[in-house]
Amino acid sequence: DAKTTQPPSMDCAEGRAANLPCNHSTISGNEYVYWYRQIHSQGPQYIIHGLKNNETNEMASLIITEDRKSSTLILPHATLRDTAVYYCIVRVGSGNTGKLIFGQGTTLQVKP
Amino acid sequence: DGGITQSPKYLFRKEGQNVTLSCEQNLNHDAMYWYRQDPGQGLRLIYYSQIVNDFQKGDIAEGYSVSREKKESFPLTVTSAQKNPTAFYLCASSQQFATNEKLFFGSGTQLSVL
Hints:
- The complex is a heterodimer of chains A (about 110) and B (about 110).
- Chain A is an all-beta fold and about 110 residues long.
- Chain A has no helices and ten strands.
- In chain A, strands 1, 3, 4, 8, 9 and 10 form a six-stranded mixed sheet that branches. In chain A, strands 2-7-6-5 form a four-stranded antiparallel sheet, with no helix packed on it.
- In chain A, strand 3 and strand 4 form a beta hairpin.
- In chain B, strands 2, 4, 5, 6, 9, 10 and 11 form a seven-stranded mixed sheet that branches.
- Helix content of chain B is about 0%, strand content about 45%.
- Chain B has about 110 residues and is mainly β.
- The chains are: A mainly beta (about 110), B mainly beta (about 110).
- At the A-B interface, strand 4 and strand 9 of A face strand 5, strand 9 and strand 10 of B.
């Protein structure tokens, strides 16, 4: 049970913002939302994570709704190298029992 | 450079054979993990270790075994009891086993059955 729902695929034009949605309606108050991406046949790469506030780093922005039941990952200026599978993950559990459970993710195709 | 090294990149297993996948990290992380990924699927947790000399079963531990004798090493053995071992195996680590810790992944090992 991945606890998150993502669209299976999305397209984005190169240079435009890519907005990847994620639903996590059963999230608990102390569970973080994580985003990773995986380029074919490589290990997943950490992008960003947050609890309830919006977050921004050099790679992306994470917008979490006030009720925390959904979030959006924003890649502000998508490039061809951003083509990958993007995983939205809720860390299950708390304290020293938490573990990341990956679903099937969204395949983002950035097109020229 | 600090990171996680998995070897080999590709591995072939014969029927009835045990094989061991290597995972080494020089990040001084306490926690380490093994995941299995099947084509078109997400990652499934096999085993994890919160600290040296300790490990716990994940969601699909049957047919696998691990050890954590050193902080930097967390090898995974795929035993003959694992009847469908063909998959992409990923090792990861985090500084601690806590809810706000991010995972660092290796580049993976593709295991195939001859």
